[in-house]
Amino acid sequence: MSTKKFMYLNRKAPYGTVYALESLEVVLIAAAFEQDVSLAFIDDGVYQIVDGQKTDGIGMKNFSSTYRALGDYDINKLYVSKESLDERGLSEDDLMPLVYEDEDDDWAEKPSVFVVSNAELSKIMSDQDVCLSF
């Protein structure tokens, strides 16, 4: 079985719809089947990995801590649209410090989040076998 490159495009805010949680579940399933998985956070999807989320006031379970486990599933390519961050008054400093342990570099922790321009993201997307939008 050949490994295919799957990119999951996260465009929706984390709460208020099922899209963010469904995407996260599908990503973890794909990784369990040893697919090459990456994620892109575009538009309101950038809010999915904002650090310090609190959901008490909306009565929904906060699932944002699950993103911290992605590195354990060899999911270490998370691309964030710089333009989407800028449009929402956010910066890379507002995002969760998501990392993975690089087994080829003596298990050194390395960042999983890459802030890229939309032009760069477009190039990355064109290199994928499958892109799924949530």
In a nutshell, what does this entry contain?
The protein has 134 residues and is an alpha/beta fold. Helix content is 22%, strand content 24%.
Q: What would you note in describing this structure?
A:
This protein has about 130 residues and is of the alpha/beta class. It has a single domain, classed as DsrEFH-like (Hypothetical Protein Ychn, Chain: A), CATH 3.40.1260. Helix content is about 20%, strand content about 25%. It is built from 3 helices and 7 strands, in the order βαββαβββαβ. The strands form 2 sheets. Strands 6-3-2-1-7 form a 5-stranded parallel beta sheet. A two-stranded antiparallel sheet has the order 4-5. A hairpin with a 5-residue loop joins β4 and β5. It starts with a strand and ends with a strand. The mean pLDDT is about 95.
- Class per helix and strand makeup: alpha/beta
Mean pLDDT: 93
Alpha plus pi helix count: 3
What form results from the Cα inertia axes?
globular
Please give the number of β-strands: 7
Low-pLDDT regions: none
> How many structural domains does the protein architecture include?
1
CATH architecture: 3-Layer(aba) Sandwich
Radius of gyration (Å): 14 Å
Briefly, what CATH class? Answer: Alpha Beta
**Order of strands in the sheet with most strands:** 6-3-2-1-7
CATH topology descriptor: Hypothetical Protein Ychn, Chain: A
SSE topology string: EHEEHEEEHE
Strand content: 15-25%
Looking at CATH, the homologous superfamily is DsrEFH-like
Name the helicity range.
10-25%
How far is the N terminus from the C terminus?
26 Å
Largest sheet: 5 strands, parallel
